[in-house]
Structure formats: C-alpha cells, structure tokens
Amino acid sequence: MAALSTTTVSIPILAKMIDHSLLHPTMTDAEVEAGLQLSLKYNVATACIKPYSIAQAKKVLDGSAVKICAVIGFPHGNSATKIKVIEAQEAVAEGAHEIDMVVNVGKVLGGDYEYVKTEISAVDFVVKQGGAILKVIFENDFLGDKEIINLCEICTDLEVAFVKTSTGYGFVKDSASGMYSYKGATFPQLRLMREHCGDKIQIKAAGGVRSLDDLIRVKALGVTRIGATATVAMLEEAIKRGICEEEVEVKVNWNEGEAGRVGVY
Questions:
Q1: Within a 10 A sphere around the Cβ of 256, how many other Cβ atoms?
Q2: Of 19, 204, 213, 219, which one is the catalytic site residue?
Q3: What does the pLDDT average to over 39-62?
Q4: What is the mean pLDDT of residues 58-74?
Q5: Is the pLDDT of residue 265 over 50?
C-alpha cells in the first residue's frame, strides 16, 4: 500500500484507532482506574491492560463501546506455550475482548518458525474459541526485515486479526555506551508489515505514536490501531484543529517523520 497524501478523519475515526495503554509496571489500581475513566470519556477502541485488571476494567467499561484488551506473555514473550494458552483462555473468560500476545523472540531469531507458528496458532485458537481476537506482537526493535516478513507470512497463513509492532518495553542495549534505546513503530517497518501481510490482517503500531500528526501518518500507511498513552493530547489537538464528529479529508504531513521514526514513546 502506497502512503497517502490525504486521509479521512473524524473524532470517532481517530478515537477508535486507539488502544489506550495502561501497561506500565508501576501503575497503581488508582492510576488504572483513572486510565479506564479516560478511555470511557474519549470512547477509544480499547483500554489495554494487564490481565489482573480485567475485573476492574469490566466495572468501568461494561455496557460501553470501549472494549477490554489484555496482554499475555508480556512484555518479553518468554512464557511456555501452554502458559500463554492458559493466560489467554483465562483473560477471555474473565471478559477480555482482545488479546495482545508477544511472540517468543528468541525462537524467531533462532529460525525455529515451526515453534513460533505452532504457538501463535494455539493461542489464536483459544482466543477465537472464546469470541475474542488476537494481536501478535513482534517486538520489531529486536528483529531484522527477514524476521518481520516471516512473521507477517505466518500470521497471514493463520488469519490472526492483527499484527503489532512492539510492546513499548523492548529496549536494546548499545554495545559501546551501555545505554538502552527504543524505537518502537517506524515508517519503514510499518510499510514492510503492510506489504507482507494479507489484506485481511490489520496492523497495530505501538511505541512512538504520540502526536496527532503521528496518528494521521500511520493511518495513511494502512495502520488501523495504535497503542498510546498520549490519547488526550492527540484527540484534544484534533478538536483544536476543527476535526469533529463529521468526516473530513486532511493532508498528511510527512515532513516531520521522514527520518523513519514515528515519535518518542
């Protein structure tokens, strides 16, 4: 899919692209509660939470149009397959509508794609069985183009609902300085994922989408969902620019993002 010069937006369109992220390991129940109320206020697609918060999320979001998204195998994807399956089953049974699962990155890098495909298939089966959908997190900061393409092809074969760039916590250590850095969603990798996923597979960009222009740019690349903590900033900026309930065509500003990185997580 070629990047678009314009795209159609409205407040509902933009809001329903957002999984409002409530995943930081230090978040208290009170902070999660505030995030759930924010998700409800802005009528986003989902509140993305850790599994233990599902019951809390149901109390706030039941009866609304905001769904519950729970993460499993998060953030490193190292749990045994049977644990990921159990975790997914429990999350769906408790009320999660969507599951974001991290792949086993070591198996991907080692080329054991039979293991990777079997694991994704097993989790996807129980998620679909419970009436939910699966998003498969690649953690692109650890991967090269070859691995990303292979994962896209596997997910297309299995007909998962979404592929997702990152967890937001895939920090890479620089061998020279010892410092940790993180890119998250980048334009080249989003283009690569769109090119190598089937038409029915949706893409979620996570890590780095922090401004309204970031959101519009990734939408123009074919992204249909983002993970974000900057929900208020993006949607309030949209309102300031005159974007409202009715659909309008807006120009995509590519200049700020052409270096490849979407933004700063």
A1: 12
A2: 204
A3: 98
A4: 98
A5: no
Q: What is the DSSP string of 161-175?
A: SEEE---S---EE-T
Active site residue 107: no
Q: Does the pLDDT of residue 18 top 90, yes or no?
A: yes
Helices 145-158 and 113-129: crossing angle in degrees, nearest 10, is: 40
Contacts of 173 (CB under 8 A, 6+ apart): 179, 180
Residue 259 predicted with pLDDT over 50:
no
> Which of these is catalytic: 19, 67, 84, 100?
100
199 included as an active-site residue:
no
Determine the average pLDDT of the residues in 173-188.
Answer: 80
The token pair at 69 is 């998204």
Residue 248 C-beta-side C-alpha neighbours within 13 Å: 13
The structure tokens 């314009």 sit at: 6
Q: Which sign does the torsion angle of CA 228, 232, 237, 243 carry?
A: positive
8 three-state secondary structure? strand
Spatial CA neighbour of 99 closest among 66, 62, 73, 119: 73
Per-position DSSP letters for 18-40, written without gaps between them:
EEEEE--TT--HHHHHHHHHHHH
Query: What is the distance between the alpha carbons of residues 235 and 20, in angstroms, rounded to a whole number?
Result: 12
| Predicted pLDDT of residue 253 | 93
**Please, which residues bridge with residue 49 across strands?**
22, 70
Pick the catalytic residue from 117, 164, 183, 219: 164
pLDDT of 263 above 60: no
State the average pLDDT over residues 113-128.
98
Kind of pairing, strands 98-102 and 67-72?
parallel
For the full predicted model, state whether its pTM sits above 0.90: yes
